[in-house]
Amino acid sequence: MGKYVQAQRRGKSGIFKSHCRTRKGAVKLRALDYAEKQGYIRGVVKEILHDPGRGAPIAKIQFNNAYRYKKDNELMLCTEGMYTGQFVYCGKKATLTVGNVLPLKALPEGTIVCNIEAKTGDRGAFARTSGTFAVLVSHDEDKGTTRLRLPSGGKKTVPSTARAQIGVVAGGGRTDKPLLKAGRAYHKYAVKRNCWPKIRGVAKNPVEHPHGGGNHQHIGMPSTVAKDRPSGRKVGLIGARRTGRLRGVKKVGQDKD
Description:
Elements: H1 6-12, H2 34-38, E1 41-49, E2 58-64, E3 71-77, E4 87-90, E5 101-103, E6 112-114, E7 134-140, E8 145-149, E9 155-159, E10 163-166, H3 182-190, E11 224-225, E12 237-238
Parallel strand pairs: 11-12
Antiparallel strand pairs: 1-2, 1-4, 2-3, 5-10, 6-7, 6-10, 7-8, 8-9
């Protein structure tokens, strides 16, 4: 009898859950309301915060509540050039300024955007990590869709009513500095989740991993594995369409437009 491999324990055990005790809160765009659909609403950046486990800084933005006498605080991604006291405008009639939130149909082609919605009103899905941005490639007015080039280089089509923040996410260049020592990697991942250090399957015993054992460290079986294999065997390159390194020009994102 073998042990449960780590991939199986991940689903059941609580020790692999994300560490969110010290986090500031969910970072999202404003909930889509009448003010944003018809005109714009103004908020002010109260402070710029560090969110543990996140590479990008976040901004606490305060809006007037449209229905009651109170203020609403929203946590949004900080874009490069944002500062405390800055006015941020959200809505279809907002100006094309860094930090503002507009629907994609109100933006010209070639605009650099971040924190983009996949579906209208989902409050942000793409290009959210530090230093990332997407480029608005083209509008298809007949279908009501917009084509984006994502940070990965891939192209994505989303509804033109989906909203996005203007600019580049702050905190870029974070990965340029090497970690240099294990202690820094330890603290980096300690605030994220239990995912470090990673032990290779071939370095384990046969009881602990399908790739383990043998007199030399070798996999001894194909590294690819089907998507429908049982969880104890489902290790390696899962449902791989291709393997090996990419040669020649980059194929991703090359299409008709």
